[in-house]
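Lab notebook: predicted structure, single chain.

Context: the supervisor wants predicted structures on file for every construct in the current expression panel, including those that have not yet been purified. This is the next one on the list. No modifications to the sequence; it matches the entry in the shared construct table.
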Amino acid sequence: MHTPELISPRSPRVVAARRLARRNFRSKDRRFIAEGPQAVREAAAHRGGDGEATLIELFTTVEAAERYADIVAAAGAAGARIHYAADTVLAEVSQTVTPQGLLGVCRFLDSPFEEILAARPRLVAVLAHVRDPGNAGTVLRCADAAGADAVVLTDASVDLYNPKSVRASVGSLFHLPVAVGVPVEQAVSGLRSAGVRILAADGAGDDDLDDELDAGTMGGPSAWIFGNEAWGLPEETRALADAVVRVPIHGKAESLNLATAAAVCLYASARAQRTPGGCRAG
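Prediction complete. Output recorded below exactly as produced.
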């Protein structure tokens, strides 16, 4: 049985972790918080392109360390420093209402956009003007589930390392390359030069997703641009796309939320790419 070593919220280690809730400190330290067993498990298994372990420190309560002994062991094996903290101390650092007792401090892990292009991606999600961190994390999770090769967050989108974004990704942040801060024009031109067709998802799009699938136009490499849930994509962003595509509404629903629409679009491309003649077929 371990005894908590961190019993004061004013401990320097606790203060350093707590300040990562603020973007300016995350950017300065190039570190972020991953909270909960799933995120910490994925962080412990992840290494950056330089081979360095992503997980630097793990804060855990004694109870959580016993419940998730395998995760704590994996964190230690990855070289992370383990801190046993009192429940009240961990609550000071946690960004959730009901902390699960595990909280990791991680290195930034975003990838250079040029590396993503060099890998010749076949399915990419581009988040342009997405300001809600929960939406950003959920779309990243959808992209991961659909087998996307990368995600790009433009310079007009929310911080990838916002605690809500990290939580909403449910570990998917550690599964696929993500580029951040890329101007949308640069993202589009780079992907197009890499042979990727650019599709803008918009409820008012001229092209219907079902028609695109029926026409067999979605089997090649594609990138979907997703915009702000409240006001969609600006006209100048829509104009950059090869096609502006709407998800058909067959029932009486007024619209789909961003994450649902993204899941439909990404899975449509993934399915088309795996059919005979698609870029992932065979």
